Amino acid sequence: MKCTAAQERIVLLAYDEELLENEAAELELHLRSCMECLKEFEAMQKMQTIMMSESIVEPSANLLAESRLKLDAKLDEIGAGGWIDRMRAHLFGSWGWVKAAPALTTLLLGVGFLGGNFLNRYQVAHQPVPRGAVTLSNQTEGFIGNVSGIEQTPNSDVVEVKYNRVVPETIQGSLSDPQIRQLLVVGAKNGLSSGVRENSVSLLAAECKTGHRCEEGGDGKGGNGVRDALLVSLRYDESPSVRLKALEGLQPYIAADQRVRDAVLESLMRDRSADVRSRAIGVLEPVQADSSVRQVMHTVSTRDENPYIRNASTQVLEGTDGLQ
Question: What architecture does CATH give domain 254-324?
Answer without folding.
Answer: Alpha Horseshoe (1.25)
